[in-house]
Design brief:
With 1937 residues, this protein is α+β, with helices and mostly antiparallel strands. It is 34% helix and 18% strand. It is built from 69 helices and 69 strands. The protein has a 6-stranded mixed beta sheet. A 6-stranded mixed beta sheet has the order 26-31-32-24-33-34, with helices on both faces. It has a 6-stranded mixed beta sheet with strand order 39-51-52-37-53-54, with helices on both faces. The protein is globular. The two termini are 40 Å apart.
Length: 1937
């Protein structure tokens, strides 16, 4: 991998054309003052480019959902890695997202619980486990002994089917030797088919199908298996009885204990399922998803996994508990509407003995219950409320029934809040999931003692469990919800000590390791105090960032660029080294970290520091220092001055806190982990609350103090956390919280208006003489509204050009030149102190310039002064807020609060005025040392004004400068929550327990000596992080740790390690794939190559990267589930280039497949000029007068209606639009051509595109009405923003609203000057073949006349591609250009879009490379042209320069389609990525293969890892590392047979690939069949389809013919479209057979109608034509080889003939797993269930009903030779051949499968899991089986004459290994030997060398091909001079010999 990322010419935001090189694998810190450009470099440039390029490797569909970053303003970036940002934003707002789900600990926990937890019965609390004969016997021994050894009767239950009498069943039992029935009972409805719930479910699902037979049993007989006394029976007899009874009773048996009279004394029931025999409750097996609240299987049904429901909150209904009922404690009843409820309360309460004048909090529980729930003996009924007390709850229930009224809904919303879900009690899971417990009693007690003194944590009582608290405390282990409620550090302790009894499988061990590792990471970064159930949206920014950091560590990606934004935020100096360790760990794994940071401890830990400055804003954007941390201390930069101690954040004179200083006192705070904390805040001082992370600072301030103060002031708030008293609040005027929420994000919001200074400035301008003269108001000088702003840009000052899939372009507005206002408004100037300025000049001033200009004007000064106070004096007044940095935005917010305080006059600190309390949460976030110094000065101003400041802070400079400190701790979480110390900073330094005091001491020591610039090492040490050994070996003195680590990293083996992969058929294999090398994975087909490459490597690399994106995007892209593998280390982000055999639909072209067309569409929309299609003149704007004149001219005397378009072809409901129209007095809107009333507005189809127009007026066009017409036109144009339309004749509307109207559009912006026709605003869809806005109305974008093709078709359907039989002629309307006349009339550079796309790739490349664009065109086209050029270059690199861009996808050859996909992917130009390719050589001629390998070589050179699944000889020999998987296929494969070089493979005895590499096949294998002069030939004459140029070719009958040639030369066209299609028709016509497929033309006359050629001769010998192509076989898991090949029907008949089946009256249909009652009702015969997950990939799990056997247990009870139908589906073909040897109809297809090398497949393997090569061969077998081959003689139904068949095979070697190719060649020879003709289209040299006859097409592809280069035996073709095939075949045969 290249070891650096090069940035050239970065100009993003304020960066000044920076050039920078960043070494990969380093930790780089970017620092500098706030606003200097750090984030512009790290996030907007580096991260944006790395993320954008990786996201581009996804499909265009997926990309529209991913937040792709904008392309940065930079000349170029080379060697960029895929990037992940770890910042402080939390993308997920769902309350289902918790700390546990964010860190994936929940995912691992659910797997652990499913594997290792023990179930406890909800009734009795005992453990529940499955019974086996052994456990039953042990239980019987115990019970029999305690019951004095009674006589026992062992019975099993048997149902009597409805279609049998009891006698018949007893008869069957007699035959089997069962003669006694001990008891009978009526069946339980649910147990009819003993799936219990499953059966019910399937019965309900049928919806009118056969839902009846849910209960088809009449009675249940308990049949006697054996009778004995336990003591006297020998063990074998007991065991046999129990075993047989369990089997016969389908898993259930009962043992009756008899008394002396022979009556039943007791019944003991046993079950081999999860069943509590004592409580008779059956439980289902646990699935991992049962423990996940993000899965429909696990989530509580009531709250859907949210853990809470919205309900009435009594805290809001009774807000003040000090009030009495008479004083109005119940708030909703104090309003006039409901005061009668209050009266009724006062009437009924005294009768019930409820005191009315006692405060609510003094009422006892019984009295409260009466008030809330009503009278206990409530009778109900409609009138009951008149005579009885109904209570508060019923009052709200009644209100809910009125919730259809708006005002009632508003009222309810005031009293609603979230309450814990009543069903699951907040546990989020279904009740049964909480009955499973993990660990022992000791494990649980260690972390959750039953009598914990704090009482904070108690074991969770599962909903529905009938246990006592004592029983719960005595139950071993913890439930999954207990884990959720404990702090992470305790959960970590639990898992560290957890040991499983018995043997632990490797997977559970791995899960434990993974859980422990993640919990340790979380504790490492100081988050041990969080709980797993904490909602992620309640986390602070610093916590989110640190969690994301641990997640990144957990995913163990490598070769990734991590960009971090101040990871030190929210961390106490003591914990800083933890984050540093995590970052070093990420770096040492092989990643690059770029960190924006101001904290000295992080800076010291960096490999390199880049300081950006010298100042903020415009004064920044330069690199002022670039080097290692040691050099920065002596560097003459601002950062260096502070680090070197030459400057310091001054601690101004502290204000003493005396004994008489007034205080605010909070006593007894107990929320979260606070332990009865009482604090005193001295007022009028700067008070700092400090303490390690998790010590309770935010809880104290945000959860207790702030809400308590708000509540005291009577403001609405969340209820405060528990506390006892709040004293002294009356001394405060107000309380203000300044937190870290972001401020406004629109481009119009700016600093001046944010602090309110702009209002004063506007008033000044409105008083200027010229403004008064023109009657301008202050509103005229607003650029947000009013008529003073520039109408073109709407006051923003720039034109925003939206680029759909590129970053948007902002251009200076051409009309106002960026000044935002109309020229007339800019003439108004304000004169002051001898200077004058217009309003735009003021907006352009910096704050300091404005303060100077407006000197002495108090109003403006008070507004602007706070901006200067917080250090923003350099910001321009009109700078858009989104362009401010995080630190600047934070300070702007503070300035807003300061200005607010100044305006409300509080700041004039008169004695009578009270001060306010300002609460700050880490105000130094994003601030540099210098900015902190300024912040302190602003704080002092607030203090001087008499306010109190309470700051939560970790920054030592702020802590040093505080007047009073309150230190919480001593640790975080459980070990925190106490006050460790209070007092001045000096007092705290002497406190031994205080970590803050220690950090202050160390900091003072490091910064105080001012001469500590260069030499003093002590200072350096104090700043360094705590000494933590990162490497085992210690550095020699003088070697810095970083360089030592770098050396170690460079020398380390760079490989992707996969440990113990078990996915599909892999046998626990571990492999290492070298990074940055070309690796080929090979092996026989079906051995597990693709599983390793795609299901494991690609899926995991992509999934880990995707997890860094937002959850919404993940839901769309559906990352794959986690593969079954222990661990994968060192995996880079991956990109897959899969083999897809489809070529694309009728509307796809080369340009759309490569996305060049998307960019061209954008280019034409933004820069094209619309011409009038009729007059060929450019369209131009027209005035309203011209429109009126044209109306008077063309519509004189007609009654017309004027409409303004509001919405054009956009999806949505548009309810708000209807409301707006109604409020403006309009009664109707015209929607999609129909007039619809605005009220009631119908629900529109949300997914359909609607066009909505506003009817403005209706006028009779007449010169007399000209004034009215003008007004109507003006109004319509205003509403339609310059566009309107006219409909006529309106007279008909009086008769019917639905009548047809004619319509013409008018536009003031775009109209033809000659004919006056108006054109709509251009839209990218105007140039799309897939949109009705763009396509040609005659051919719908296909460019062809296709019979029956309409707008509903996409063109992707098989019917229009592979199966289309009709003739496809060019469309007469658009002449094949696919677009409508308006689209074709848009020109750019004098060409239409169709002219550009008609160019071949090479010519298009020349055109775009030679383009020069300047000015506005250059700005807009810059990114588009770069994208187009990049894609064209890659198309040429893969050898496709000859393709025209508008070439239709269906006409491409397979090889061309494959290479186009490759070119599209390679264009992303990333480094450090792992590309996974699936047989890229498919469809490629050996010559093209070499071109491709060169392109891959270049990719490898860029520093990428290439993993290719391939069988091709050339590719294998080119690889630097080989992995051979085998030795066999399917279950016989899945092992690594050999790895290393080609020589290593040849030396490995088991490697089949190695054997073929060492000893290639010797051709010909069984002699050539000569083609003599008299051999009958099928002659194709004059073939001219696609690129064929009048080809005449001959195919000898009864021979093996191979059609070959380079990709795109016309092979498939000749063999399939000319030969096969024509002969299929001709033969069908000759045989008089019905047409084989729909859509074909009927047989006509005698002579076949030839298409694509002049004629075909010599075909009359053929009786049948069969084709084997590459279309995939069935896609559902129910399709499998047995059903596809077709012998399953015969197997079903065999089972239906079995005696048991006949006894139950079953037919063959019973044994179908596709339909019917025999299949498993849970999975409906699929053998697995797909569990759909929102925001997560769908999960496939084996069905828990049938364990993958597909049938229900009754059906599986029928056996043939001891195998059930489910067993047969699980058999391999090889075994099945022997098993079915007596059934030739079944054995024959199985024999064929074995012949083509599929002997290892199971009969029921789901089709989607077959590899490409396997599916191909199964199709071949299916075709061969139709021909019923027996020893070379064919018998047909009619006669025994051997019918002569023509087989056409399209690349049958796709996906086949060399060994399988040899088998295939033998099968082909057998076909020919049996007297058939075989034509194969093929590139495989082994097959070509075997041919009797070759037809070589060429010489090149595309237009350079289509000719017959040579035909004849291979020896003849080898001599042909211009045959590429001949030349390569010569080399190949020479090498083989």
């Amino acid at each position: 991998m290249s070891s650096e990322i090069r940035i050239v010419g970065a100009r993003q935001n304020n960066l000044k054309n920076l050039d920078l090189t960043i070494a990969t694998g380093e930790l780089v810190v970017v620092t500098g003052v706030s606003g200097s450009g750090k984030s512009s470099l790290a996030f907007d440039t580096l991260y944006a480019e790395g993320q954008r390029r990786y996201v581009e490797t996804f499909s265009p569909y997926a990309r529209q959902f991913l937040d792709r970053m904008d392309k940065p303003q930079v000349d170029r970036i080379e060697g960029i890695l895929p990037a992940i940002a770890i910042d402080q934003t939390n993308p997920v707002r769902s309350s289902r997202s918790t700390v546990g789900t964010m860190t994936e600990i929940n995912d691992h926990l659910k797997l652990l619980y499913a594997r290792g937890a023990v179930l406890h019965c909800r009734g009795c609390g005992r453990p529940v486990r499955r019974d086996t004969p052994d456990t039953i016997r042990a239980s019987l021994a115990e019970r029999a002994q305690s019951a004095n050894d009674p006589r026992l009767v062992v019975t099993f239950p048997l149902g009597v089917p409805a279609n049998y009498t009891e006698d018949e069943v007893r008869g069957f039992l007699d035959q089997q030797g069962y003669t006694r029935v001990h008891a009978e009972e009526a069946p339980r409805a649910e147990a009819a088919s003993h799936g219990g719930k499953a059966a019910k479910k399937s019965a309900g699902k049928g919806k009118g199908k056969t839902a009846a037979p849910a209960v088809d049993m009449q009675r249940i007989l308990h049949v006697v298996q054996d009778r004995f006394r336990y003591a006297g029976a020998e063990r074998e007899r007991v065991m046999e009885a129990l075993d047989t009874a369990l089997r016969m009773g389908a898993g259930h048996l009962s043992v009756y204990a008899l008394d002396d009279e022979g009556n039943n004394a007791a019944v003991w029931k046993y079950s081999d399922r999860l069943h509590c025999a004592d409580c008779d409750i059956e439980y289902s097996d646990p699935l991992p998803s049962s423990f996940s609240f993000n899965s429909p299987l696990g989530a509580c049904d009531a709250c859907r996994g949210f853990g809470r429901v919205i309900g009435i909150d009594l805290g809001l209904v009774i807000p003040d508990e000090n009030k009495t009922l008479l004083e109005g404690a119940i708030k909703p009843w104090q309003t006039p509407s409901f005061k009668e409820c209050q009266a009724e309360l006062e009437k009924y309460a005294p009768k019930a003995g409820i005191p009315l004048s006692v405060p609510w909090k003094a009422l006892n529980a019984e009295q409260r219950a009466w008030i809330l729930a009503g009278t206990p003996d409530w009778k109900g009924g409609n009138q009951a409320w008149k005579t009885q007390w109904y209570g508060v709850n019923r009052f709200f229930d009644w209100l809910e029934t009125k919730a259809y009224k708006m005002h009632v809904r508003v009222l309810l919303s005031k009293y609603r809040s979230y309450t814990p879900c009543p069903v699951c009690k907040g546990a989020r899971l279904k009740p049964d999931a909480l009955l499973w417990r993990l660990g022992s009693q000791a494990d649980a007690d260690a972390v959750l003692p039953p009598n914990e003194e704090t009482g904070r944590y108690r074991r969770f009582m599962p909903a529905g469990a009938q246990w006592t608290r004592e029983q719960l405390d005595a139950t071993p282990g913890l439930s999954v919800h207990d884990m959720m409620l404990l702090p992470i550090e305790r959960v970590k302790r639990f898992f560290d000590d957890l040991r499983f009894e018995g043997a632990l499988d490797a997977a559970s061990d791995l899960l434990l390791t993974e859980v422990r590792a993640r919990l340790k990471f979380l504790c490492d970064v100081g988050l041990g105090y969080l709980t797993l159930d904490r909602q992620s949206r309640t986390l602070s920014g610093g916590e989110v960032q640190r969690i994301n950091l641990t997640t990144a560590l957990g995913t163990s990606l490598v070769n990734t660029l991590f960009v971090l934004d101040e990871p030190s935020i929210g961390l106490h100096p003591r914990d800083m080294h933890r984050v540093v360790e995590v970052m070093h760990r990420l770096r040492d794994a092989g990643n690059t970290l770029v960190v924006v940071e101001h904290d000295p401890q992080v800076m010291v830990a960096a490999d390199r520091i880049i300081d950006i400055g010298p100042g903020p804003g415009e004064r920044g954007g330069h690199i002022v220092f670039d080097g290692d941390p040691g050099q920065l201390r002596t560097a003459p930069t601002l950062t260096g001055d502070y680090l070197g101690g030459r400057k310091r954040v001054e601690a101004p004179r502290p204000m003493q806190v005396a004994a008489n200083t007034p205080r605010l006192i909070l006593e007894g705070a107990r929320a979260h982990n606070l332990r009865n904390v009482s604090v005193e805040l001295p007022l009028g001082r700067l008070v700092c609350i400090t303490g390690v992370s998790g010590s309770g600072k935010s809880t104290l301030v945000q959860d207790v103090l702030y809400p308590a103060l708000l509540k005291y002031q009577g403001k609405p708030t969340e209820s405060p956390g528990e506390y006892d008293k709040l004293l002294g609040a009356e001394q405060l005027a107000d309380v203000v919280m300044v937190d870290q929420t972001p401020i406004g994000k629109t481009a119009r919001s700016n600093p001046a208006s944010y602090v309110g200074a702009f209002d004063a400035i506007r008033k000044l301008y409105a008083q200027a003489p010229l403004a008064r003269e023109r009657a301008y108001t202050p509103g005229t000088f607003s650029f947000n509204s009013g008529d003073g702003r520039c109408p073109t840009c709407g006051g923003t000052g720039f034109e925003h050009v939206e680029m759909q899939f590129l970053s948007d372009v902002y251009l200076r507005c051409p009309d106002c030149d960026g000044k935002r206002f109309r020229p007339e408004v800019l003439e108004v100037r304000v004169e002051h102190l001898g200077r004058s300025a217009s309003i735009d000049q003021v907006l352009n001033m910096t704050v300091s310039e404005a303060l100077e200009f407006f000197k002495g004007l108090r109003d403006v000064q008070t507004g602007l002064a706070p901006l200067a106070d917080v250090g923003l004096e350099y910001v321009r007044l009109g700078q858009p807020v989104p362009t401010l940095s995080g630190g600047e935005a934070q300070r702007l917010k503070l300035a807003g609060h300061l200005a607010e305080a100044a305006r409300s006059g509080i700041s004039s600190a008169q004695v009578a005025k009270k001060g306010s309390l300002f609460l700050f949460d880490e105000p130094t976030t994003g601030l540099h040392f210098d900015d902190v110094a300024r912040l302190m000065r602003a704080f002092r101003k607030l203090l001087a004004a008499g306010h109190t400041l309470l700051v939560i802070e970790h920054n030592l400079d702020v802590i040093r400068a505080a007047d009073w400190l309150i230190d919480l701790g001593p640790e975080g979480g459980d070990a925190g929550g106490e006050v460790v110390g209070v007092g001045t900073p000096h007092d705290l330094m002497g406190n031994v327990r205080s970590h803050t005091g220690q950090a202050l001491r160390a900091y003072e020591g490091s910064i105080l000596p001012v001469q500590a610039v260069a030499a003093e090492p002590a200072a350096a040490l104090a700043l360094a992080e705590p000494a933590v050994a990162y490497g085992e070996e210690t550095a020699s003195p003088g070697t810095p740790l970083q360089s030592l680590m770098r050396r170690k990293r460079k020398s380390g083996a760079q490989a992707i390690e996969i440990l113990n992969a078990r996915e599909h058929n892999l046998k626990n294999i571990s492999v290492e794939i070298p990074r940055d090398k070309f690796t080929v994975i090979t092996g026989v087909s079906g051995s597990g190559k693709s599983t390793l490459a795609f299901d494991i490597l690609f899926n995991e690399g992509q999934r880990r990267y995707l997890e860094s994106l937002n959850a919404y995007a993940r839901a769309i892209v559906q990352p794959a589930g986690k593969p079954d593998v222990d661990a994968i280390f060192g995996i880079p982000p991956t990109v897959a280039i899969e083999q897809r055999t489809s070529r694309g639909g009728r509307k796809s072209t080369v340009a759309t497949m490569t996305e060049i067309h998307h960019f061209l569409r954008l280019l034409y929309v933004k820069l094209g000029t619309q011409y009038c299609p009729d007059d060929h003149v450019p369209v131009e704007p027209q005035t309203a007068d011209q429109i009126v004149a044209r109306l008077l001219r063309e519509h004189k005397g007609v009654h017309i209606g004027l409409l303004a378009p509001l919405v054009t072809a956009r999806k949505g409901y548009y309810t708000d639009l209807a409301k707006w129209a109604g409020s403006k007095g309009h009664t109707h809107l015209r929607v999609d051509g129909e007039f619809i009333p605005v009220s009631p507005w119908p629900r529109l189809d949300r997914y359909k595109e609607h066009t909505i127009e506003l009817p403005v007026a209706d006028v009779v066009v007449d010169p007399a009405n000209e004034a009215e017409l003008r007004a109507a036109v003006k109004s319509a144009l205003e509403n339609g923003q310059g566009v309107m339309s006219v409909v006529w004749p309106v007279d008909t509307l009086q008769r019917s609203l639905a009548c047809e109207l004619q319509q013409t559009h008018f536009s003031t912006k775009r109209a033809c000057p000659t004919c006056g026709k108006s054109f709509p605003e251009p839209d990218p869809r105007l140039f799309s073949y897939n949109s009705k806005h763009g396509w040609c109305a005659a051919c719908f974008g296909t460019g062809l006349q296709l019979q029956g093709f309409d707008e509903e078709q996409t063109g992707e359907e098989t019917a229009w591609n592979a199966w289309y039989e009709g003739e496809a002629k060019t469309c007469n309307t658009c002449h094949g250009l696919r677009l409508n006349p308006t689209a074709l009339a848009v020109k750019w550079r004098d060409r239409s879009i169709a002219e550009l796309t008609s160019l071949p790739v090479s010519d298009a490349h020349t055109f775009f490379t030679g383009l020069v664009t300047r000015g506005r065109e250059g700005e807009i086209a810059r990114d588009i042209l770069a994208e187009i050029r990049g894609r064209l270059i890659f198309m040429q690199e893969v050898g496709l320069g000859y393709l025209a861009l508008d070439r239709a996808a269906p006409t491409l050859s397979g090889g061309e389609a494959q290479r186009i996909r490759l070119a599209a992917q390679l264009g992303s130009n990333l480094q450090g990525v792992c590309y996974v390719l699936d047989e890229p050589t498919i469809g490629l001629h050996p010559r093209d293969n070499r071109i491709l390998l060169d392109a891959l070589g270049r990719l490898e050179g860029n520093g990428n890892t290439l993993v290719v699944v391939e069988h091709d000889d050339d590719t294998i020999r080119r690889a630097s590392h080989l992995i051979d998987i085998g030795p066999g296929a399917g279950v016989r494969g899945g092992r690594v047979v050999a790895q290393g070089t080609a020589q290593d493979l040849m030396d490995a005895p088991e490697s089949i690939t190695g054997r073929y590499l060492a000893h290639p096949l010797q051709h010909p294998l069984n002699g050539r069949r000569a083609v003599e002069k008299d051999t009958p030939m099928i002659q194709v004459r004059g073939a001219r389809l696609h690129n064929l140029r009048g080809v005449d070719a001959g195919i000898p009958v009864g021979r093996l013919t191979v059609v070959t040639g380079v990709s795109g030369s016309g092979k498939s066209t000749l063999a399939r479209e000319v030969l096969l299609d024509n002969l299929t028709h001709a033969v069908a016509q000759k045989n008089g057979a019905p047409k084989p497929r729909e859509g074909e033309r009927p047989a006509a006359g005698k002579a076949p109608a030839w298409s694509g050629c002049e004629r075909i001769e010599g075909w009359e010998l053929l009786d049948r034509v069969l084709e084997v192509d590459q279309t995939p076989i069935g896609k559902t898991p129910r399709s499998c080889p047995a059903t596809y090949v077709g012998f399953w029907d015969d197997v079903r008949k065999l089972y239906a003939d079995a005696r048991e089946a006949r006894m139950r009256g079953w037919t063959a249909a019973r044994f179908s797993f596709n339909t019917g009652e025999g299949r498993c009702p849970v999975c409906e015969g699929q053998g697995m269930r797909t569990i759909e997950m929102s925001f997560l990939p769908d999960v496939k799990v084996p069905c828990d009903g049938c364990n993958g056997a597909r049938f229900n247990s009754d059906t599986l009870g029928v056996q043939l030779r001891e195998k059930s139908a489910g067993d047969v589906l699980g058999m391999e073909v090889d075994d099945a051949i022997d098993y079915f040897s007596a059934h030739p109809r079944i054995q024959r297809p199985l024999q064929l499968m074995q012949d083509v090398g599929l002997g290892y497949l199971t009969l029921g393997q789901p089709s989607p899991t077959l590899s490409g090569g396997e599916a191909q061969r199964i199709k071949l077998v299916t075709e061969l089986a139709k021909a019923r081959m027996t020893e070379g003689v064919f018998k047909t139904g009619r006669a025994s004459r051997t019918p002569h068949t023509l087989y056409v095979l399209d690349e049958p070697t796709v996906g086949l290994s060399m060994a399988d190719v040899e088998k295939l060649i033998h099968v082909l020879h057998r076909l020919v030997d049996a007297g058939n003709t075989v034509v194969v289209i093929e590139h495989n040299l082994d097959v070509i060398a075997e041919a009797d006859w070759l037809i070589d097409m060429g010489p090149e592809g595309g237009d350079g091909g289509g000719r017959l280069v040579a035909q004849g035996a291979p020896e003849i073709v080898m001599k042909a001079r211009n045959s590429h095939t001949g030349q390569i075949l010569r080399e190949f045969l020479a090498g083989a010999r």
